[in-house]
Specification:
Layout lengths: L3 E4 L2 E4 L4 E7 L8 E7 L6 E7 L4 E3 L7 E6 L4 E6 L8 E7 L5 E2 L3 E6 L1
Parallel strand pairs: 2-11
Antiparallel strand pairs: 1-3, 3-8, 4-5, 4-9, 5-6, 7-8, 9-10, 9-11
Amino acid sequence: QVQLVESGGGLVQSGGSLTVSCVTSDNIADVYYMAWFRQPPGKERELVASITNNPSTYYQEPFRGRFTISRDNAKNTMLLQMNNLKPEDTAVYYCRQGVAPAFWGRGTQVTVSS
């Protein structure tokens, strides 16, 4: 069973920056698709950004220009660098590996204060 562990969440002020990390127990060099999702309080989980092993990246519109997704296949790690954070970015951030099957981490809480 593949295990993913997110870290790096915390409390940050509006306008600040934070980088969250995801380490997987799998060798991700051959994993085509990885992604960051988030779930704000009281809302459904939503896609933030994805990255393939080409690599090519995709960002949902609200995050373009503020967030940067990257992966380090040698370290089996995926990162999400978040800049100019806003209170509405408060959420639990989850990493996902693969499409079918998909594996998820347990999430890391990011809280942005106004």
